[in-house]
Amino acid sequence: MKPHYLALALLVLVGCKNQEADQAEPAMEESTETTNSTTDKGYPTEVYFGDTHLHTELSMDAGAFGNRLSVDDAYRFAKGEEVTSSSGVTAKLSKPLDFLVVADHSDGMGLFQALMNNEEWVMEFEQGRKWADLIDEGKGAEAAVDLIKNFSQGTMEMNPNTPELMESVWKITIDGAEKHNQPGKFTAFIGYEWTSLIAGNNLHRVVIYRDNGEKTIGHLPYIADVGGSPDPEKLWENLQSYEDKTGGQVLAIPHNGNLSNGIMFARTTVDGDPFDLDYVQRRQRWEPIYEITQIKGDGEAHPFLSPNDEFADFENWDFGNLDLSAVKTNEMLEGEYARSALKMGLQFKGSLGVNPYKMGFIGSTDAHTSLATADDPNFFGKAANVEPYKERWEHPFIESELASIITWQTVASGYAAVWAQENTRESLFDAMMRRETYGTTGSRMKIRFFGGWDFTDADLEGDWVANGYERGVPMGGDLKNGVDKTPSFIVHTLMDPDYGSLDRIQIVKGWLNADGTTGEKVYDVVWSGDRQMDANGKVPLVANTVNVKDATWDNSSGAPELSTVWTDPDFDPSQEAFYYVRVLEIPTPRWTLYDKVNLGAEMPDNVPMTMTQRGYTSPIWYSPM
Amino acid sequence: MKRLLQEPLLHFALIGVALFLLYWIVSPEQESENQILIDDSDINEIVSKFELQWNRPPNAQELSGLMGEMIQQEVFYQEGLRLNLDHNDEIIKRRLSQKMQFLSNDLADMVQPSEDELQLHLDNNSEKFQTPAFYSFYQIYFSLDSGEDPKERARFVLDASNGKSFSEMRTEGDPIALKYYYEKITDFNLRRQLGTEFLISMQQLQTGSWVGPISSGYGYHLVYLEDVVAPKTPPLDEVREEVLADLNYVRQGELKASIFKELLSQYELVFDFQAEELSGVEEIIRNDLQE
To answer: Is the CB of residue B196 less than 8 Å away from at least one CB of chain A?
Structure first.
C-alpha cells in the first residue's frame, strides 16, 4: 500500500538536490536518423538480420539455468557492445544485429525471481520448496529441468501466472524495447513467447507486435496454463482481441515442430476436429512465417520424409518431444517438418480452398543466455550453464528414462533475414506479414528469389532486382496470371564474406497430384566450380577443406556469388505447387570444432566437426486459375 | 561520475535517502496507531488485478471478499511487526535486501546527471558514441573461382594501372554483385558488404592510389581509396540520449557497490571459524569485499 508514497518521497528529496541540473537540461529530442533507408526505389534494397527469439533472466527456465543478464544487456549485446555473460565470460557479437525480439516465456514470467526470494505463494507448495532449496544449494539447473518437466506434463502444483508478477515483468520487457528501439538504426520489437505444451509436445509460438508500449502495455501476454489455454486457436482469439481493442497489429511465429511429436502441423485441431474454413483462414492470417531453424534442431526436412534428398539429414532432432517423455515414431514426422507442412497445405488448399500452412521462413536462436549468438566461432550455447567451457559439449541437455540429448547436438543457429524498405518496427513487421523473409543457420548470406512468367538469362545482365519486382513476385508471393506459360525464377546469392563460400543453390518444389497425393523434388540449379551433374540430376558433393587442427578452410572450392534463371522443366499448370530456395555453403567448422581448437575440448568421433551453413527462403506459390 | 561517487557528501545523502525509504517500507502505517486506512487507490489496485485475471470487474460480493482478505493480511502483518516476527526471518531478509538494491537502481535513474557529468562520460567513452568512419573508394574484384591465380592477375592489373582512368579500370577484374564505387559508406556497412577482413585492411590504407591485392571472403580486390572521414566524437547535444542511457547503466552498477561499501563500513565484520580447512577463507572474503 506504500509504493505511491515512495515515489513521492524520492522525488522530493532528489528534486531539491538537482534543481540545477534540471534547468540546464534541454528537452530530449528523439533521434530520427534513418540510415540504410531505401524507400526511394519503391521496393526493399536491403536485407536486415536479426533474432526474433531471445530469452533473458526473466524467463523462468533461463533464470533457473543461471542467466543473470537483463533485457538491457540483451539489447546492448545485439547492438554490438561487449557484455559480461552470466558465467563471467566476456561476450561480443562478431557483427551487430539489425533487430531483436526479446521473447520471454508467457508462462511463469517472474516465477524464478519468486523462487529466489522464497516468496510465500510458491513456498506453500512442496514443489516450490524443493526448487527453492535446489536454487539455494546452487543447483538451479536441476531445478529448471524439473520445473520444465512438470510444466510440460501439466503437473505444476502452483499457478505460475500471477497477474502481479506478469504485470511487472511485462513492463520491464516493454520498457526495454522502447528504450532500445532506434528507428532507422536498430529495431527492438515488443514480444513474448507463448509457451504451449500438450503432454510435453511443443506448440510454442513467438508473438511479435508491430506497435509501441502505449498500445501493448495494457495487454498481458497470453498464457498457456490455467487462466489461458494451450490451444493455438485460443491464442489467435487473444491476438484478435488485441487488434480489435487497440487497432494495433500482431503476428505469431511457431517453432520446433520437431519437438511436437507430430502435432505442430496436424491434420486436425487440438480438439481433434477436422479443419474448417474458419480454422485455415485464421492459421494463415496469424502465422505468416515459421522458425525453420534454431539451436534445438533444424526443421526444414527429414530423411524419412525425403529419402531422395541427400541433404535432408541435417542437424535433425528426432528423438522425442520437448521433455523426452514420449519417443518419436516415423508417423509423427510428417506433422513436424516445414517441407511436409507446405505439402500438406496444398492438400488443404485443394479441399478447403485456403492453405493453412502458407508460411514463409525465418531462423532464430531461442538462446536462453540473453546473448543472440548463432555464430559458430562465437557460440554462447542454449543456456547459461553451457556457455563456453571445455567440457560443455558432453553436458546432458535433456534427459529422461527414454532418451537423452547432449549439448554437442545443439546447433549454433540461426538468424532471421528480412527484406524491408527500412529498419523500423513497421517496415520489418510488414515484410514478415508478406513473407519476404528467409532463415539462415547463422551465416548472413544475401539471397534474392523472384518468380515470374517470362524471366530469361538476359534478365541477369541488367538490373535484375528491378526486373524481378517489376515482372514477378519476390519470395513469399504468389504466381498469378500465367495462362499457357511456364514459371521461371531469378535466384541470386552473395556469400557472407565472413563465412564459407557457396556450394550450390537448390530449388525445392512441392506439388499436389490430381489424386490428392503430393510430390516433391529438389533441383540443383547452379553450383560452384566445374562439377558435372550426374545422370540422376545430382551435382557431386563439394570438397570439405576444413583443417581440423586450426579451424580454417579454403573458400576457393566454392563460389562467392551464384545466380541463374531457372525454368521449371516439369511444370503442370493443373497442379497446386510451391517453390523455395535452399542455399548450401561449403563445409566450414561447426561450433564443436571451435571448442576443440579454442578451449582444448576432446570429443569422440561421433561428434561432427564441420557443417554446411544454409539459407531457406520463403516459398513462392502457384495455383491453377 | 567516478568523481561524484567518491564524494562523501553524496554518499551520505544517498544513504540517508535509502534508509529513509527503508523506514517507509517497514514502518507501520503513519496515520495513527491501530488504524488501517483504505483509500481509492487500494480499491483500484484490487479491481485492476481482478480484471487482469478474469477480464471483467469483480461484482460486489467478490470485491467485498477481496477487501476482507486484504484487511486480514494487513492486520496480521501489523501485529506480526509488533511482535518482531520479521526478525531473523530468511525470506524477509532476502526480500528487504533485494528492495534495498532496487532502491539503488531507482536512485541511479532519478539522480539526473549534470551537464558536466554527461560530458565527462562522453569524453571518457568517446569510442562508444563516435560517428562512424566513412570510406569513399573504388574496388575491382578477382575471383577465386576463375581457375587462374587471382592474386597474380590482380598484381598484373595493378602493375599496369599507371595512367589509367577510373572508367578504364572498371572493366578489369571479375563480375560480382558489389559496387565499383562506394561513396561515403560507413564502417558498419562496409563490414556487412565486404566482411571483417576487408574492413581491417581498409583501416590501414593511404588515399590516392590503386593498391592491393587485398583479401576478403570473396577473393581479392584492388582498391583505390579516395577519401576517409575519420570518426568524430559528436557534441553532447547530438548523442545526449545515448550518453544518458549508458551512464545510467554504468552508474546503477557503481552505485549499488558504493552504497553497499559505505554501509558495510559502518559494521564490524567478525569471522569465527573453528574448522582448520576454513583458515584463509576470511582473507579471501575480505579481499573480495574490497574490490
So the answer is: yes
Q: Are B50 and B58 in contact (CB under 8 A)?
A: yes
- pTM listed for this prediction: 0.81
- Number of CB pairs < 8 Å for A and B? 128
Helix (H) or strand (E) holding B184: strand B181-186
CATH of domain B131-229: 3.10.50.40
Q: Which residue has the higher pLDDT, A198 or B30?
A: A198
First-to-last C-alpha distance (Å) of chain B: 18
Name the B residues in 100-159 with CB < 8 Å from any A CB: 106-107, 110-115, 128, 143-145
Q: Burial level of B167, CB count in 10 A (0-12/13-18/19+)?
A: exposed
Whether ipTM > 0.85 holds is no
Determine contact, residues A178/A397, Cβ cutoff 8 Å: no
Cβ of A94 within 8 Å of Cβ of B197? The answer is no
Residue intervals in chain B for CATH 3.10.50.40: 131-229
* Contact call for residues B255 and B108 (beta carbons, < 8 A): yes
Helix (H) or strand (E) segment spanning residue A615: strand A610-617
Q: Which residues contact B93 (CB under 8 A, 6 or more apart)?
A: none
Quote the minimal CA–CA distance from A10 to chain B in Å: 8
The structural domains of chain A, with segments of one domain joined by +, span 47-434, 445-622
- Whether A197 has a pLDDT exceeding 80, the answer reads yes
Residues 6+ apart with CB under 8 A from A201: A259, A260, A261, A262, A263, A321, A322, A326
Backbone angles phi, psi at B137, to 5 degrees: -160, 160
Closest CB to A2 among B24, B198, B245? B24
CA angle A104, A107, A108 (to 5 degrees): 90
DSSP B153: H
The answer, yes or no, to whether residue A13 has pLDDT greater than 50, is no
CB-based contact A95 B191, cutoff 8 Å: yes
Contacts of B193 (CB under 8 A, 6+ apart): A497, B178, B182, B185
| A495 touches A571 (CB < 8 A) | no
